[in-house]
Amino acid sequence: MTAILVSEVGPRDGLQSISRIMPLEAKKAWIAAEAAAGVKEIEVGSFVPPSLLPQLADTAELVAFARTIPGLRVVALVPNAKGAARAAEAGVHAMSIPFSMSETHSLKNVRKSHPAMIEEIGAVAAIARAAGIDFAVSLSTAFGCTIEGAVSEDAVERLAIAAVEAGAQELSLSDTTGYADPAKVKRLVRRIKTAVGADMLTTLHLHNTRGLGLANALAGLNEGITTLDASLGGIGGCPFAPGASGNIVTEDLVFMLQAMGLDTGIDLHQLLKVREIVSAALPGEPLYGFTPDAGLPLDFAQGNHA
Amino acid sequence: MTAILVSEVGPRDGLQSISRIMPLEAKKAWIAAEAAAGVKEIEVGSFVPPSLLPQLADTAELVAFARTIPGLRVVALVPNAKGAARAAEAGVHAMSIPFSMSETHSLKNVRKSHPAMIEEIGAVAAIARAAGIDFAVSLSTAFGCTIEGAVSEDAVERLAIAAVEAGAQELSLSDTTGYADPAKVKRLVRRIKTAVGADMLTTLHLHNTRGLGLANALAGLNEGITTLDASLGGIGGCPFAPGASGNIVTEDLVFMLQAMGLDTGIDLHQLLKVREIVSAALPGEPLYGFTPDAGLPLDFAQGNHA
Who among B145, B252, B306 is closest to A211 (CB)? Predict the structure, then answer.
């Protein structure tokens, strides 16, 4: 049975797009409950200046807490070398830097041109190496940009190679804006795997902006993707890409993977209950997902799947 | 560019699951607007007794109206030979009979065992042949049943062959209950195509009950499926299968297909506007779909897709 890693990014990508601040204790309960349900990797926060994202100001405390959970891989986002130093100090297992394939988006989001970003990636890579931490570069807006529109696939390939040369240990393709479609996922995953080596690209970060999230995930699985980012209840989005709604929903993704006979190691019944924690901590906040409403199929409960 | 036929089933599958009755004039406006947007096939209603489904009591009038629209293939569902005779008299281009792969569901839904259904299919086939009308058998609950749970794939194969022997001109696989997953779609489409001939199975009828609808559609496309049923705004469901929500959403499906470079012949901007007709005719009725809320991507508007 093929193992697929479902990486929960809700505590970072989800919470950063919500203006209310989830209390630290609720975040801890959420992370602990998801880990208990079998989720093996969680992006717990982001080392951005607290003045920019007060919602994630407690990331260092969350890292410390999450590190106490056996078997959990603790990931944080870092915007730059300064954030990377803080992440290393906090003790993450892995850090990830977003590298926007749209230079306009990059300039608007982190005020850095592509050459400046490559330099930053080099600096973060050095920090990660020194600390013995895994380091991924997330190729964001890889499928299109809400400001620029189409993003050239030639540019994505060129920038992917540059990121690896600058020290990225792995890449992920990120549909920040919900512009991906299955044909483009297939084409771009193949192309980048060919350009940088298949093992360098195993992760997709997808949003469900136009309802294609799981179809895009399937297209990725068919091309050898083995890690999929998702957000519990589908909360999240990109605060810098208006109109781009939440990540693909962890619950629906896990249902799809398990129904297909893929091994996630996650107890779906237990995962569905985690929703209550998020819902209670953010009353009135819309949560997405179809499986939570519909419930599991009868044959699923009968254990007839795969 | 591969052509994919998007078959709108909202006026039948959608409206039958809503207790309110959409006025005939609104239905006509809906059908006309979708045809004007480029939709080439519409299931306009069902020839069931009006006492059972008063929502669809005007199906004969709708068939007559839809037949006046140039280039539109007018389809109706028929539950039995009696309905088939009415459909033929009304002048449909094609009729479709649901044949539930779950015998329990069949008994509950139409009070017929599998052998009784095969006999009925034979009778409907004779009526269709005599009238020169296309005739499809929809293998419903093919992916699982809310009463029986798992439905044996051996049984689906056996019943598919029996339906063809009884006179079906084509088959469709129907996920009435939202139990399908991409692996099962791949497996079952391959198996039934092998059993009855690839050209005999070109249609999938999918629901989005657990959010997997478009992923399942993609799995079907990858196996040579060329017709996909969908419902505008995702309204619809199966009144006999509690918990099974609406069909896949026409708007999201068409967006996915066109983004992938597949030819639907549909003007997506125009299609999105049809929603207003349905919404105005059924105020307060929930409509689904992500693309209508998110809008089309910037690069889509730029014409950079495919």
Answer: B252
Question: How many Cβ contacts (< 8 angstroms) between chains A and B?
Answer: 147
Q: Is residue B249 a contact partner of residue B237, using CB atoms and an 8 Å limit? A: no
Chosen for mutation from A181, A293, A302 (greatest number of chain B CBs closer than 10 Å) is A181
pTM of the model: 0.96
Which pLDDT tens digit goes with each residue over A136-193? 999 999 999 989 999 999 999 999 999 999 999 999 999 988 999 999 999 999 999 9
Active site residue B238: yes
**Chain B residue with Cα closest to A259:** B181
Q: For residue A237, with 0-12 CB atoms within 10 Å meaning exposed, 13-18 middle and 19 or more buried, which class applies?
A: buried
**Gap from A83 CA to chain B (nearest CA, Å):** 32
Structure tokens of B254? 């068409």
Query: pLDDT tens, A227-276?
Result: 999 999 988 655 555 555 689 999 999 999 999 999 999 999 999 999 99
B-chain CB neighbours of A217 within 8 Å are 215
Cα–Cα distance, A162 to B100 (Å, whole number): 56
**CB-closest option in B210, B261, B294 to A294:** B210
Q: Which domains does chain A have, with CATH numbers?
A: 5-301 (3.20.20.70)
The 3-state DSSP class for residue B94 equals strand
Q: What ipTM does this complex have?
A: 0.95
Helix, strand, coil shares of chain A, percent, nearest 5, are 45, 15, 35
Residues 6+ apart with CB under 8 A from A300: A255, A258, A259
Across the interface, of A146, A290, A304, the residue whose CB is closest to B211 is A290
Distance, CA of B176 to CA of B166 (rounded, Å): 22
